[in-house]
């Protein structure tokens, strides 16, 4: 479809790793088998760097594997060697120095293994992009491979964006700056999404799926374009490619969505989307023709548009909506930047896996002992609190004392009515319907007023022409022609006036049952609690003391569950002090184990300790409150008497359900019918009645063309006066298109005063009437 963007590799100067690293090994470890093993590992590391960076790399996965292994090894040895003290300097050139993509500094040399890691990871992303661009996208394997490596490249560049400043502690070269690598990451992600669009197309997936994938790809390319367009160092080829890809992906989405509209018999929408797609590919072809090839896509869209217009013009006559009125196409992303998590290579084996000094081993053992003491202290305090809580509740016979207050079950009929109300939207649904009534009424009045205005304007034009041409204007007067439409409009106006009174009745009825409708919307347990019990012992169910006690017990259960979660989190905390001890040993020559371990324990367990203390204080407060509430509950249980209003409440609930169903049904049905009738009236005023009535009128009598209408020169001043103008011919039946039917343009264009030529007579055609159901939002009157 179009050229894919790939990133060039950075180039590094040769570095001798053997001398400085071997010096550290011999100074740190005594002579012996272990030292020999580490010296041999240093030699292997130096060879690995030469293989990864010292020669041109093929655009193949085997070359990428070498880069990944070297990056993993750098991550593994970074905490084991004091690189800042080794005077080991890494020099890298800017990948875009020659202007292939982004300009920048020539080179940068830093004594930082973090800088080396950043540049190697950049090459990982660059080589992955090159491998992906070399794939054959005509087969399934090539598509899968391309998508995989574009996502890997995106993840590599995104990781550099997040870490480069902290890794270098200075301004980086332009190619690895956060802005540049952030843009590269977005470009790679966009291309990966485009590959999935191609795969979905090749797999003949549904039009709806391809449309969402393509729309998401267009969105990604648009984001990448925005990130690029304000960069002064951007070469000319990147922005046009991104802009062209954005247009082409959006056009592809519209093409697929138009096919979906055709399947749903929305032929006007189909044409609108194809027209929009045509504009997009024309933009891409006219502005970015040297970068992309849109001919195949353009031909496909044009063929579909031609067929759709032909079918609509001769068969369906569906209204073609404006592009801005079309429902937005959904989006579906199948790509994600691959997270950089070491090891990246599946074949990685740490060359210095055993490199841990004896001092570090002893410090790690002591640190683990301190960690175990901290964990045992936290868990022991929480378990002790749980035992205390269980003992207090057992002494109060809780929650057993509340279990016999569940009351009688809610009748099945009431439960069914409750479910019916909830399924129809509940209280919120009917409140919204009532809230929309004034707006619907106002809109319907505007539709009606606009319909009468159309008739008035047409009648005024007819009277003006009749007065000008007298007997020669022999068309039936508009007042007689459209009398049935005016009568129908007056009838609707009367209906709207009565609707105002009906709305007030609906509101009053709703207000009377609002409370019980709200009760029906509640869950079964709340509904059961609100219905009085027929058993004297169960009337405590709704008392405030019982509710408070239940709430306090629920809060106490939540506190206990929080402790269980906390205990699991405390046990799951894992950390290894080896790295910190290695760094301290390399920098200071000794390890302050107690200080380092205490600091790490505070970092890892400080928040847990605070949460445990808060939890214990909360339990203490709740137990105190529960004891007070239990005393009140015991007294109330002895003094309460039986309530007999259960049946009355059930009656009110049943009545509320019936009122809800009736009110909701009446409002919905009334609104639907009124909107349908009024929109139908408006369409009649726009096209049907005018077109068919005018078409039945006889044509204007033929007459000879007078000399003043011929192509002779105008008479000189003082010459003979031109003859009196003739009336225009009977207006032809208007060719009402869906767009015209939805605007407030006049029905016919009157002849301007002083005009001498009659309007051209259109060839006779069948009446054309807007198709489709009435629309709920009226667009005909001027804003």
Shape: flat
The major beta sheet can be summarized as: 2 strands, antiparallel
Spell out the helices and strands N to C.
HHHEEHHHHHHHHHHHHHHHHHH
Q: What Rg do the Cα atoms give?
A: 41 Å
Low-confidence stretches: 639-644, 688-725, 727-783
Distance between the termini: 43 Å
Number of helices: 21
Tell me what portion of residues adopts beta-strand conformation: under 5%
Strand line-up in the sheet with most strands: 1-2
Helical content, roughly? 55-70%
Pfam families: ALIX_LYPXL_bnd (PF13949), BRO1 (PF03097)
Region (Disordered): 699-783
Protein name: Programmed cell death 6-interacting protein
Biased composition (Pro residues): 714-736, 749-766
Give your account of this protein's structure.
The longest helix has 51 residues, at 646-696. It is built from 21 helices and two strands. With 783 residues, the chain is mainly alpha-helical. It has a two-stranded antiparallel ribbon. Helices cover 64% and strands 1% of the residues. The model is unreliable at 639-644, 688-725 and 727-783 (pLDDT under 50).
């Amino acid at each position: 479809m179009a050229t894919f963007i790939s990133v060039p590799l950075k180039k590094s100067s040769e570095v001798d790793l053997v001398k400085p690293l071997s010096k550290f090994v011999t100074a740190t470890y005594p002579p012996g088998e272990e030292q020999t093993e580490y010296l041999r590992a240093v030699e292997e590391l130096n060879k690995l760097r030469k293989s990864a960076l010292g020669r041109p790399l093929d655009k193949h996965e085997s070359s990428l594997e070498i880069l990944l292994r070297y990056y993993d090894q750098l991550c593994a040895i970074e905490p084991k060697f004091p690189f800042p003290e080794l005077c080991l300097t890494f020099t890298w050139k800017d990948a875009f120095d020659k202007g292939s993509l982004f300009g920048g500094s020539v080179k940068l040399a830093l004594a930082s293994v973090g800088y080396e890691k950043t540049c190697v990871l950049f090459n990982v992303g660059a080589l992955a992009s090159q491998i992906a661009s070399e794939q054959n996208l005509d087969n399934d394997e090539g598509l899968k491979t391309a998508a995989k490596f574009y996502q890997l490249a995106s993840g590599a560049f995104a990781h550099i964006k997040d870490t480069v400043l902290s890794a270098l502690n200075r301004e980086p070269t332009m190619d690895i700056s956060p802005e540049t690598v952030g843009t590269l990451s977005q470009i790679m992600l966009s291309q990966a999404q485009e590959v999935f669009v191609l795969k979905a197309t090749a797999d003949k997936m549904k039009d709806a799926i391809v449309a969402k994938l393509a729309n998401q790809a267009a969105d990604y390319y648009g984001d990448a374009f925005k990130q690029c367009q304000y960069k002064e160092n951007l070469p000319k080829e990147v922005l046009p490619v991104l802009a062209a890809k954005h247009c082409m992906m959006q056009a592809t989405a519209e093409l697929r969505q138009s096919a979906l509209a055709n399947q749903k018999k929305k032929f006007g929408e189909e044409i609108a989307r194809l027209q929009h797609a045509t504009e997009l590919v024309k933009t891409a072809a006219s502005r970015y023709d040297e970068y992309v090839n849109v001919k195949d896509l353009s031909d496909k869209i044009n063929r579909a548009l031609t067929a759709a217009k032909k079918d609509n013009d001769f068969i369906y006559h569906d209204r073609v909506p404006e592009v801005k009125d079309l429902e937005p196409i959904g989006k579906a992303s199948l790509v994600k930047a691959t997270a950089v998590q070491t090891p990246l290579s599946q074949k990685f084996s740490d060359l210095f896996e055993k490199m841990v000094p004896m001092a570090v081993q002893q410090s790690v053992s002591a640190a683990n002992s301190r960690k175990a003491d901290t964990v045992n202290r936290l868990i022991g305090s929480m378990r002790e609190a749980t035992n205390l809580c269980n003992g207090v509740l057992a002494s109060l016979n809780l929650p057993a004392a509340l279990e016999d207050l569940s009351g009688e079950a809610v009748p099945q009929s009431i439960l069914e009515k409750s479910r019916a109300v909830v399924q129809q939207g509940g209280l919120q649904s009917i409140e919204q319907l009532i809230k929309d009534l004034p707006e619907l009424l106002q809109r319907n009045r505007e539709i009606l007023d606009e319909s009468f205005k159309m008739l008035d304007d047409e009648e005024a034009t007819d009277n003006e022409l009749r007065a000008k041409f007298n007997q020669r204007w022999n068309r039936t007067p508009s007042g007689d022609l459209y009398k049935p439409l005016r009568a129908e409009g007056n009838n609707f106006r009367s209906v709207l006036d009565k609707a105002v009174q009906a709305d007030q009745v609906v509101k009053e009825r709703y207000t009377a049952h609002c409370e019980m409708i709200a009760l029906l919307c509640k869950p079964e347990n709340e509904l059961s609690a609100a219905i009085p019990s027929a058993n004297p012992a169960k009337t405590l169910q709704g008392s405030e003391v019982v509710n408070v006690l239940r709430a306090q017990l629920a809060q106490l259960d939540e506190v206990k569950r929080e402790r269980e979660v906390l205990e699991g989190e405390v046990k799951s905390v894992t950390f290894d002090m080896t790295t910190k001890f290695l760094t301290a040993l390399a920098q200071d020559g000794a390890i302050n184990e107690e200080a380092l371990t205490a600091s790490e324990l505070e970092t890892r367990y400080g928040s847990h300790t605070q949460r445990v203390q808060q939890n214990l204080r909360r339990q203490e407060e709740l137990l105190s409150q529960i004891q007070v509430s239990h005393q009140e509950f015991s007294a109330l249980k002895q003094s309460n008497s039986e309530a007999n209003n259960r049946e009355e409440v059930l009656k009110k609930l049943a009545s509320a359900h019936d009122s809800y169903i009736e009110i909701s049904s009446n409002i919905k049905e009334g609104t639907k019918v009124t909107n349908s009738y009024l929109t139908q009236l408006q369409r009649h005023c726009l096209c049907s009645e005018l077109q068919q009535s005018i078409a039945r009128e006889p044509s204007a009598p033929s007459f000879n063309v007078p000399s003043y209408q011929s192509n002779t020169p105008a008479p000189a001043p003082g010459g003979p006066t031109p003859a009196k103008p003739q009336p225009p011919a009977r207006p032809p039946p208007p060719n009402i298109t869906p767009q015209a039917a939805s605007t407030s343009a006049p029905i016919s264009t009157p002849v301007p005063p002083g005009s001498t030529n009659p309007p051209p007579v259109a060839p006779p055609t069948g009446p054309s009437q807007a198709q489709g159901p009435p629309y709920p939002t009226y667009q005909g009157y001027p804003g």
